[in-house]
Amino acid sequence: MAAEGKAARPWSAWGVRPFRRLLIGQAASSLGTQMQQVALAWQLWSLTHDPLVMGAMGLAKALPILFLAPLGGVRADRRDRRRIMLVTQAMMALVAVIFLLLTVTQRLTVPLLLGLVALHAGAVAFDNPARGALVPALVPSNRLAHALSLSVSGWQMAAVAGPLAGGLILAGGHGAGLIHALDAASYLAVLAALYRLPSILPETDTGRADQSAWTSWLEGWRFMLADRLLWTTMVIDFASTFLGASMVLMPAIAEQIHRGSARELGMLMAAQPLGATLAAGLLSLMPPIRREGPVFLMMIGVYGLGWTAFGQMQSLLPALLCLVVAGAADSISTVIRAHLRQARTPDAMRGRVTSIGMMFYIGGPQLGEAEAGAVARWLGPGAAVSVGGAAILTLAALAAARTPELRRHQVQRTDIRTAPEASSATPDGLKA
């Protein structure tokens, strides 16, 4: 492993072969998933034209994660993380195949759609903790920040191209069936990358292997609560994503405000990830952010400002620019939060801490979609978005005033906790 204190060159994590294979596979899989999100939103809107039912899709995603994430985190800290991801990715591929069959046979109903979305979310509850604990095991500690930036960049590039491609496919009259077929095929890439990795086991926590799952998970909570910086950033992220969860309203906004179709829907759903991609790519070329606390708070405020302005825009181009700004701010705050979590968490606890974080950063936006659907039925989609954005601005101001330790936080070498060398190595001689 490279020396911990020696700064790595930008994009240096790309040179770690196992990480590069996984990153490419995940990007391909994410591309299919993002295309599928457009198809599902369009299909559900076509079936109901009801913002409240659109919000129910957020609940279908959130509830399995909130209930199963604790078990997923404990599992990731006790089992082979590679094997867990092989099972979860195969399950998500199966869900895509079922969506394909129901779509081409014209048997997809609202209950079936929401049920399959919930099944997919249940797999995510086990997949994300294993994935979050796996990446630090693939790269040296001094490349971790850049590896996280590249991971966010790969996901965000897929989140840009996926909605655009999905919208064009739907607008071209090819139907959602083609999208579901492409999504199912995309899982082959990440499964192939995982298959080529060696087993990646967590560190053994001596004397604690016989703990119950509940006791083990509570230990993760105690660790999280004891680290005020981790806890504060998690809460702020949950609140901001809950209040800014407006992607579920995009079909209504595209149709009712911008008088568009599936093509405009794809553009709206791609604009925020485009801003996030640009920001994450820039971060991967720069030294790690040193003044993480102030930058994090500032980006939360910019994120809220972007959504506030977006809700008031009646023209498509200014609306897209607002989403680009919001996406860039969200990406920067995400990278900062991910680096804090990974750098300050010992390897033996990474799965549990990731699962707790997942309840915040996935549960927040999905629960927020249910709230956004309810508010949109009352105020209309544009006003609902602006109200949420204004609430985020208020949250950022309160957080800056009430959390001086976050406002002053800077990265120090003593902040970084790293896992020791793995027992096996890749052909590159780096941590496997």
Short description:
With 432 residues, this protein is mainly α.
Helical fraction equals over 70%
CATH fourth-tier homologous superfamily: MFS general substrate transporter like domains
Which geometry do the CA atoms define?
globular
Along the chain, the helix and strand elements come as HHHHHHHHHHHHHHHH
CATH-defined architecture: Up-down Bundle
Tell me the number of strands: 0
Our Rg estimate from Cα atoms comes to 21 Å
- Domain count: the total is 1
Question: Span from first to last CA?
Answer: 11 Å
**Biggest sheet record:** none
CATH class: Mainly Alpha
Class computed from helices, strands and strand pairing: mainly alpha
Low-confidence stretches: 1-7, 413-432
Count helical runs.
Answer: 16
Please, what is the average pLDDT? 80
**What percent of residues are in strands?**
under 5%
Question: Can you give a write-up of this model?
Answer:
The chain is mostly helical and 432 residues long. The protein has a single domain, classed as Up-down Bundle (Growth Hormone, Chain: A), CATH 1.20.1250. The chain contains 16 helices and no strands. Helix 8 packs parallel to helix 14 and helix 14 crosses helix 15. The N terminus and C terminus are likely disordered.
How would you summarize the topology of this molecule?
Blueprint: H1 17-48, H2 51-76, H3 81-104, H4 110-134, H5 144-171, H6 176-195, H7 213-226, H8 228-243, H9 250-256, H10 262-285, H11 292-310, H12 316-343, H13 350-361, H14 363-379, H15 381-402, H16 404-407
Helix pairs in contact: 1-5, 1-6, 2-4, 2-7, 2-13, 2-14, 3-4, 3-6, 4-13, 5-10, 5-12, 8-11, 8-12, 8-14, 8-15, 9-10, 10-12, 11-12, 11-15, 14-15
